[in-house]
Amino acid sequence: MTVGLQPQPGVKFLGMPPFPEAARTALGDEQLRRNLGHATSTIRTKRLNAVSELADWEELRISGASIKDHTLAHLDDYLEQFAAAATAAGATVHWAADAEEACAIGVAIARQHQVDEVVKVKSMATQEIELNEALEAAGIDAWETDLAELIVQLGGDTPSHFLVPAIHRNRHEIAEIFTRRMGEVGRAAPDDLTADPARLAEAARLHLREKFLRAKVAFSGANFAVAETGTLVVVESEGNGRMCLTLPEVLVSVVGIEKIVPRFEDLEVFMQLLPRSSTAERMNPYTTMWTGVTPGDGPQEVHIILLDNGRTRALADRVGRQALRCIRCSACLNVCPVYERVGGHAYGSVYPGPIGAILNPLLHGVADEHDAALPFASSLCGACYEACPVAIDIPTVLIDQRAEAVREKASHVGPDPERVAMKAAAWVLDSPKRLRFAERIAIRLRGLIARIRWLPGMPGGWTRSRAVPPIPEQSFRDWWAQRASAEREREEPDGQP
Amino acid sequence: MDSRERVLAAVRSAIHEAGEPVVTRNHDTTLAGDPDLVELFVERVDDYRAEVHVIDEADLTLRIGEVLGAHKVNSLVVPADLDGAWLKTTHARLVHDSEEVTAADLEGIDAVVTGSAVAIALTGTIILDGGELQGRRLITLVPDLHVCVVRVDDIVGSVPEAVRRLNPTRPLTWISGPSATSDIELNRVEGVHGPRTLVVLVVR
Amino acid sequence: MTHVSLFVTCLADALFPDVGKATVTVLERLGCTVDFPAAQTCCGQMHMNSGYPDEAGTLVRSFADTFAGADAVVMPSGSCAAMLRHHGATVAPGVAVPPVHELSEFLVDVLGVTDVGARFDHSVTYHPTCHSSRLLGVGDRPTRLLQAVEGLSLIELPEADQCCGFGGTFAIKNADTSAAMGTDKVGHARETGADYLCASDASCLMHMRGVVDHQDRAARRPASLRTIHLAEILASQ
């Protein structure tokens, strides 16, 4: 049975316009802006409280960043160590160079067990590789069990936030989706369902319980993978993770190769950084750590798919590789003024927000116009860097990726008005004489410029909502020259020898 | 070249000039000051809207009975090694955990009583490791009420202290309050899939 | 006597000369001698932030040549100072960029002054621009300077740490998002009821003023909520 769980055409990421245009559409959605504004401002305040409680927060950030940097610099060794330890503990380790390979491995495992459905705990990596679509194509339903993912899946929608994928939906929209859709795919929502969040959570509990009890195979991601022990870690809130990681017979975890930390003890850093940065809690309700197979307890067949899918491309970028420190906490999304206004969908990727604006181009390159537009989707205000628990200097990487995008465009496209303008500006600014000349032309035209209400093309973006600044009667440098010569005259009045 | 070799080769080529980043670990590994760990733990568990009581060892049996009675527990699952003495004051139908007990069996069970391995005062976290008095992971997951006994000796101050006490080869479950979600407009709602009620008995 | 080399910034030079004049007034009032090296142009920020690091490097090199040996280079812009201090070496490797000071840093840290002897009989709300606060870490220096101005009443700006939305070419490439951010910022400033919205960057001010003027024009009302640079308030008496 396939029940049309995947996003409907039109809301799918593929085929979305590049960021500026998608952002404009999103900005016009008043409901979306209210939902986002409310949610992000709530979490921003909470995060500041959670972080300020720890006196050693800055030291933790540095520990987190430096542990990750060290791991990335020795990633080959740590990956091999992890695979050996996990295998020794009874897990089967698979390697996937790209999404296609990873999906093929996952589908093959599900097929081996002859299931027509699997349960899933929310995972960015499985979204990235579009595992649900691959399973569905093989006739296997993949049930998302995280409340927000359920909302997104039932709404035929795409996630817009790492942590709160349905951040763009308010309680009334959620109640409507549950009432309309739950019955079509399993236990229906109660007849008297209201928009009370507790009632909505209860409806999800009842709807998913039968799926948890029935499922033979579960899919997950992992927040951390410990090289020395082969341990995987899933950090969650609702208990759907525990359900998926404990009840089924078979567990398949898709793990990005950057999730490795060298030692079990390193978790003492990340288990402090992650909850406080993401849900702004001292600790998330549930964390599961498992090492291979525990006889008699939990899944007795455990698979781990180590996924590259562009990560080694990002790893090769000297400036950009720090993006692989990311622990997917979403603090950067919550503090980003651009994300707050346009939401996650405008980024056209499972990785939205500031981190998405660097991660997507690093993973895929900037040949595609969507990826090329993302590094420019920022005012470079730096709020993301300040909030990042592993100190990723997102603005610096954005700037570096902008240069990549410009180089890439120059290598393919012919004369480009923007490039011509930037080169011309550089030529003018490189010489005080030329700058002075340009200033004087502007001053000559000041009457005309003052009447401008509309400009064509790109500069039109400014005039749509902002007035053009008036041109002064005299530039500073001319004023200074005049003042200096007046002073000289005072010091050496005419007619004196 | 198989996928393993391809991924590793790509990693090696990407990091060939990555150098040797220095690891700096200056974060605290113990709790600053000398707070009363029991008091702090209780305060933090309470913040998650879990029920928490500090009791004397001598009263444990009585208090377990009271909690189960107050929550109208008719059926109860306990780890195989749980001391029958703890349960003398309850009349609930008792299931002892064993490999024969399935999740479907547990679906009809009201509550679970377990011990715990380590607890963290600063974050109000309880950690189960499947060891003594804890049973398999599913028994603390499917029933709607979890009564968890924490010994004061097992309470440490901070996350690093706890991590250093754990055995990573065991299946570990960190529990901080009842199951919760913030998925609806980022409002916290207690009670989704795990036990919706968590009662913590801190035993002096 | 402290000798100051003024880097006025290209934007203030061409569009906001009053900001440059005010900076000179304040510095001279405090006993500095000010010179304006005529070879100066631009810090290169626009090019670097737009993906043209080579062009930015050329401009940073010109800056370094022009101000080589200066005792103190002072500029009325947090973002240009941040560009030169933090990114100069990135785009112009090997070039010794002279130490630079944003105006409020120079007044408070180098001259050790918070009361610059100004008078300004208006209510003011202050927007701490992102690069001044996050990249330079100027902290409360600008507001300490404002608090010491006679006659001035400083009103706190709600959500002050939120970006105004200018962001250089972001204002054009992502004009709608930029304008939405600007509209919210101006909205918060209007909520305060202050006469003036003040900041330490002419670029952010140009954007915010653009929003204010556009709103006033659309509503066919006289100009409201004036924008002003910190230097202009400190220069007034």
Write the layout of secondary structure elements.
The complex is a heterotrimer of chains A (497), B (204) and C (237).
Chain A: H1 19-27, H2 30-52, H3 57-73, H4 75-88, E1 91-96, H5 99-112, E2 117-120, H6 124-128, H7 131-137, E3 141-144, H8 147-154, H9 171-185, H10 197-214, E4 217-220, E5 224-226, E6 231-236, H11 240-246, E7 250-256, E8 260-261, H12 267-278, E9 286-291, E10 301-307, H13 311-315, H14 331-335, H15 337-342, H16 353-364, H17 369-373, H18 383-387, H19 394-412, H20 417-429, H21 432-444, H22 446-450, H23 460-465, H24 476-491
Parallel strand pairs in A: 1-10, 2-3, 2-4, 4-7, 5-8, 7-10
Antiparallel strand pairs in A: 5-6, 6-9
Helix pairs in contact in A: 3-12, 9-10, 16-19
Chain B: H1 3-14, H2 37-47, E1 51-55, H3 60-70, E2 75-78, E3 93-96, H4 103-107, E4 111-114, E5 118-120, E6 125-128, E7 145-151, E8 155-156, H5 159-165, E9 172-175, E10 180-184, E11 187-190, E12 197-203
Parallel strand pairs in B: 1-12, 2-3, 2-4, 4-7, 5-8, 7-12
Antiparallel strand pairs in B: 5-6, 6-9, 10-11
Chain C: E1 3-6, H1 10-14, H2 17-29, E2 33-35, H3 45-50, H4 53-67, E3 73-75, H5 78-91, E4 100-102, H6 103-110, E5 123-126, H7 130-136, H8 141-147, E6 153-155, H9 170-173, H10 175-191, E7 196-199, H11 202-218, E8 226-229, H12 230-235
Parallel strand pairs in C: 1-2, 1-3, 3-4, 5-6, 5-7, 7-8
Helix pairs in contact in C: 4-5, 5-7, 10-11
Could you tell me how far the N terminus lies from the C terminus of chain A, measured between alpha carbons in angstroms? 105 Å
CATH class of the largest domain in chain C: Alpha Beta
Strand order of the largest sheet of chain C: 2-1-3-4
In terms of DSSP E residues, the strand content of chain A is: 5-15%
Query: How many β-strands of chain A, per DSSP?
Result: 10
